[in-house]
Amino acid sequence: MKKVLFLLLFAHQVNAQSTKPASLQPPQQSDSLSIVNRQLAPGEMKKDLQLFLDIRKKANSGLYRYRSVKQIDSIYQWAFNQVRQPMSTTDFFKVIVQLTDFEGSCHNYTEPGGDLVKYFNRQRSFFPFALKYVEGNIIFNSKTPQIPVGARIVSINGVADKALMSSFYKYLTADGYTTTQKWSNSVNTSYGIRYLYEYGLKDSYTIRFIAPGATEPQTVTIPAVSLEERKANLALRYSAPVDSLIDYNVQPKYSFKMANPATGLLNLRIFTMADDANDPAFPVYVKFIDSVFQVLSTNNIPNLILDIRGNPGGSDPTFEQPMMYLTDASFKENTLAYTIFGNGIPYEKYFWGVSTSERMDSAAKVAGKAMLQDYFPVFRNGRNIQDSKHNPVYLPKQPRFKGKLYLLIDENVASAASHLASLVKAYANNVTIVGVETVGGYYYHNGHMGLIYELPYSKIKTKFSIVHVEQDAPLKPDQPEGRGIIPHHTVWTSFNDFMQQRDTQMEYVHKLIGGQF
Prior knowledge:
The chain is built from 16 helices and 23 strands. By secondary structure, the chain is α+β, with helices and mostly antiparallel strands. Residues 1-16 form the signal peptide. Keywords: Signal.
């Protein structure tokens, strides 16, 4: 979910030279942080916690997908024990985040109230540099005289590297028990506002590191920067030339080229090329996909690389389109999909909308309820089963690709993209999957429709998807329950390739093919 971040300069002025008697002084305002990150009373937090649990029991069809009733009861007992004493909003937020993560859905998302988010974003407290997860370590990823590129970070502000990484896992939700994205994004994406949530506002950062080829650690202290300065530094990170190859913010949403005379390369960076089948952009995309497979067939191309690394998902029915050319079997999006409440929106008083940046108005609510009624018309035996018209059978298309397919995935592949990867592994002919286990699940996910609620006392917003989806994914011996799509060849970025700015995973595929770039 994209968030618009406002960077403002906060200034607090005090007239220390006033000669007025104390009794005539205007009342002193509380520090801004103490307002937006106020101390919450135990009673307030208990009420928010109970509401958080009640909403999920009523509306979240995935609450007990990977956790038993006993396990859910246990973690909530822990949470209620945590709030027996007053605590700050951010500390309470960290309790809620752990509950969110425990459920096992990559569509879960929680953030503090908007005022607190804005306050943090306008502070000059951000970590200045880019870091990258490489071979299990935190690797320095900025070009600066203070620290060499490739240095291994030993600690930041006295917190050791492994403790730093594990402290961010709770913010990184994943389907089931998958951990790959937690490992990498505990480094790659956790040193912006997430660091401030976890460790508070900082004026400076003391970094202990070991330079490449060295054995003894060194220490430098560098000042914190503004959010805009951090963004500018990230844009210039050392790994940007390689990272940008799979970045949907940089690359076209979909593209095709011949990597070499024997190998086509189809890139699908994000499935937002069309909102749905009625979008005028959809037939354009469908025509493009067909043209790709016409080229492959006409020229009898023996190899196709389908690269969906970094693809966070998107809309139906975009991800099904390439799949129809990769199999001789029919398939469906799911074998079962349902919600667990009847008409209306449970606990509507606390319902916020579908985006944390904007509260849903009454007209949008009416339209949303109508859509729910259309997709899930009948409530029976505790379930609203999806209407069959929204789960069509997809038939194979011609010309079917008859060569060798190589699917490239990574830990950031989620939602619709991991659903495509699941279908490819289940039904594609002659496929080899290379990369890293996806954050999205192989067998199940909760998705489609996300609801956001705001807790009344803490103003914390929490999002979860309400549709339980059992994917059209046959049982496979190398696909355990509660895991993402597991590649045939697990390939992470190597340190040497990071230093030489090479794409480890793509080079691995070309070696499998036996060709050259």
